[in-house]
Amino acid sequence: MAKPERGDSSARRRPGSTDVARLAGVSQKTVSRVLNDEPYVKEEVRLRVQAAMRELGYRRNDAARALNSGRTKRIGVVCLGTALFGPSTQLVAVERALRTTGYSVTIVNTLEGDTIADAVEHLLEQGVDGIILSEPIDEGDGVPIETDLPVLSFGRLPGLSAKPSLVTGGDNLGAGRTATEHLLGLGHRTVWHVAGPQRWWAAQDRLAGWRQALAAAGAPEPPVLEGDWLPASGYAAGRELAANPDVTAIFVANDDMAIGVLRALAEAGRSVPGDVSVVGFDDIPSAAFLTPPLTTVPQDFDIHVDRGIANLVTEIESPTGDRSPLPEPPPLRLVVRHSTAAPRPAG
Amino acid sequence: MAKPERGDSSARRRPGSTDVARLAGVSQKTVSRVLNDEPYVKEEVRLRVQAAMRELGYRRNDAARALNSGRTKRIGVVCLGTALFGPSTQLVAVERALRTTGYSVTIVNTLEGDTIADAVEHLLEQGVDGIILSEPIDEGDGVPIETDLPVLSFGRLPGLSAKPSLVTGGDNLGAGRTATEHLLGLGHRTVWHVAGPQRWWAAQDRLAGWRQALAAAGAPEPPVLEGDWLPASGYAAGRELAANPDVTAIFVANDDMAIGVLRALAEAGRSVPGDVSVVGFDDIPSAAFLTPPLTTVPQDFDIHVDRGIANLVTEIESPTGDRSPLPEPPPLRLVVRHSTAAPRPAG
DNA sequence: TGACGTTCTGACTACGTAGACACATTCTGA
DNA sequence: TCAGAATGTGTCTACGTAGTCAGAACGTCA
Lengths: 347, 347
Hints:
Two copies of one chain form a homodimer. Helix content of chain A is about 40%, strand content about 10%.
């Protein structure tokens, strides 16, 4: 009488372990034992219970389990720009890696107006067991995350104030340096840079790597052009660069923008790599099939994601246990295709 | 004594509404009222409770709420190929659309070896309130989903046996026809097709549209080449086509493969659109910046997603309420760029 | 045979929230 | 002034699961 029947005769409520127990002629607790593969259940009983489960179409109620145990077996992922190649590839890798661990994935995108803290708050309410920040961006002040939950960040995140925090991700700085050094090594006097949006740490780091390489080589540092990761912004930057005859080498912060740059150069009649060399970043699947095939720096998501996830899960399940050291970045590679060459001899 | 303290003094358990109530000097129920913005709470009390919440860092426990109410306010999304442009764009749209409705999103990717039914089962255990199938593929037999939950499918899904099911998505068939008609209209004798993997309904439909258009025009139907959505497979198909002098027009089932086709044609010395015209599908951001800029068919995800989600939420919250009719597909567009032209006059 | 250990099972209960309901207080109108 | 409505608050309880513990059924060894 305290509460009306949940659903009437037509749409009766989902069966619970109690219903299974009744049908199998055992106690609810025994059903729970079968459900969790606990020992000390007679084989005959186990089979009877499983049959009852099938008959009723029983499914465990995770909400109840979570309430009781305090753990949801769910990880929250805070995403940004999931439509882009890097973030979406990473998200897939995360889902795949978590799959084998028995955790499921709840995602929140930070869209316009949201801060990372908002997104995290949303996840905390849902009772996730851990949090992943995928490609966090620079929000000015730090990221005040008030939780004792383990937090894994893909990508540098200064100011992350959560206690048990793990950070991993590719070496954007080293990669930016490598790309730039490649161009300098071909004999270019200097290298121009089309940067990603500077709110992204990854974009900041690639730029910093470019700057370091120029400084180390004593090359002059041309002004930076900033895009938004998309081809159109690369095209806009490319038009500026194409108009400048001094430009012979460009490091573009991702392949999509590089496509725009290539287009702008082609329209301006400047040949690649004859007049201008271009290096991209990401090695998107189409990079090898562009005109010309693009020299670029591949990102190795799987390695970082797998190890990051492994550490996160360890941290969740045994907060005391010390975890394997974070992965040292894999050796940087540069895939040299046909968009880079030595500059034309002066004259 | 029945259960040990959850966490010792060092890491004490999360505060519950009871703790807030004690601090604010009210009953737990009143805290619940404040939490849910229910009426009949004195302003002064409301403020006191909110202050107590802040002081304790209280966060509602969604597991308990779900257990009590039978609803989780969570939607499960079954994804496939999330790294591809279409699916990932769609996922972002889904998350954005659900955001405003107060539902959160749990994703499951169907990877190798998983069936859609497996993925759905996983979601049902978690107690989602509704299910979205994003770009489902053809698994041979139907999709036996045993649930009364509303199911929304983006993309045709014959054999979907769930009761309250909604289907929406772009008109792949019409789009395939439009693309083909465009090429025929330019004067090409017939149009070749590089298809997507035929396990995908979207790929099947685009192919069927191509076939229809050819039949309607009385054009001969050349053999179909099948790719896997990725540029490399388009390149492989493109090499075959480039070697065949009869080929003057190609409809490629997505832009990424079209990039591979363009590359193969360029390497073979066949100019686009001089010798061969190419039409893609998707209008990925870089399509306008390829060499040459690609004529393609844009997909209108936002419209379908928004309406589909709206219907899904309606179905969840008032199963009786009849929903607005499903969206009629928006008018098909074809973005004509520079990869298509009339064939060279014979001879 | 009886003490003891191992295997198996059930009764009871907490988890945190919100629904049903009772009741107290204030306001409204005749 | 008092009935009756509107407003505000508390008590009790269910939701489905799994932890704790009591104890039954069975074996084993002295």
